[in-house]
Amino acid sequence: MKKFLNVLLAVAVLVGCQPQVGQAAATARIKDVASLQAGRDNQLIGYGLVVGLQGSGDNLRSSPFTEQSLRAMLQNLGISTQGGENRSKNIAAVMVTASLPPFASPGSRMDVSVSSLGDATSLRGGTLVMTSLTGADGQIYAVAQGAIIVSGFSATGDAAQLTQGVTTAGRVPNGAIIERPLPSRFKDSVNLVLQLRNPDFSTAVRMSDAVNAFSRDTYGAPIATINDSQEVVIEKPKRADLARLMAEIENLVIETDTPAKVVVNERTGTIVIGADVRISEVAVSYGTLTVQVSENPMVVQPLPFTDGVTAVQPQTDIIAQQASSKVAILKGSDLKTLVSGLNSIGVKPDGIIAILQGIKSAGALQAELVLQ
């Protein structure tokens, strides 16, 4: 248990959850904590066919849309399919998705993800046929085609099957060519809107102060204002180039602030405690009662030269054990003190999860408890 809590403390330190007593606050560049509103990604989607599979494709009888798509594709290529019946399992219907990066220009490439729609067992070795990718407005922004890379594999024998990973989904690296640019007017914008990835008023104020300090030295006037905990608006100075201004602002270093949180995943036993988590003075006791029931039946043999029969005599042993429990006083002024207090009780991870939930219910945990 002590080793687990020491590892927990090390993980908290690695993710930046260090005690702030006697230490400087966490700092980061603006580009690492905020994103440009005009520079967001856009989701694209398309429907296509994968060919070249080794008998692991869709069953055309149970996936009629695959057969309809195959006939339509062959007809577009000038091949008549009337009156014929296709039982091939080398083709599969798939959904193709991608994220169109901001400010993408025609001719550039991007990755696409391919996922099976029918009852195909594997897409390994397949090739995605030319597929149009459309946006939410119905316009075609990219066209995808290429060989699919599948990380999972599946091996099947007469009496056993081994599967690792997912074989019905894969990726086509640089498989889509952008055909239409997004309507973007970055150069014509009169201001920049920065959105915090983790909304927080303290971080927004510090960002605004850092930008205004920079603008006073460079342009002689403040240019940043705060809309709310997520948005900071920056007005473009008259003699400034917008791209160069953004490059200078995103490299400014600010002090970040985050709310106190304890994240608990009960399935995996993972506990992440933030640096600002505090616990009011509270007494905690943890103990469990274990009841073990053992059945040890005994075989009773009859005496020699008698008409008796062999019988089974039931025998049940019940043992009740209660683990030794300790009562500890917890008062966490910082992360290290809190972990040391939990460490002194000597419980397992599931016990720590129960203790944290109990402390939260008692109102002594001065943080948000997030259960996953």
TrEMBL record:
Gene encoding the protein: flgI
GO MF entry, a single one: structural molecule activity
Location in the cell: Bacterial flagellum basal body
Signal peptide interval: 1-24
Stated family: Belongs to the FlgI family.
Origin superkingdom: Bacteria
Name of the protein this chain belongs to: Flagellar P-ring protein
Organism phylogeny: Bacteria, Pseudomonadati, Pseudomonadota, Alphaproteobacteria, Hyphomicrobiales
GO biological process, one term: bacterial-type flagellum-dependent cell motility
NCBIfam families listed in its UniProt record: PRK05303.1
Any coiled-coil regions, as ranges: none
Keyword field contains Signal: yes
GO-annotated cellular components: bacterial-type flagellum basal body, distal rod, P ring; outer membrane-bounded periplasmic space
Assembly notes: The basal body constitutes a major portion of the flagellar organelle and consists of four rings (L,P,S, and M) mounted on a central rod.
InterPro entries: Flag_FlgI (IPR001782)
Source organism: Rhizobium setariae
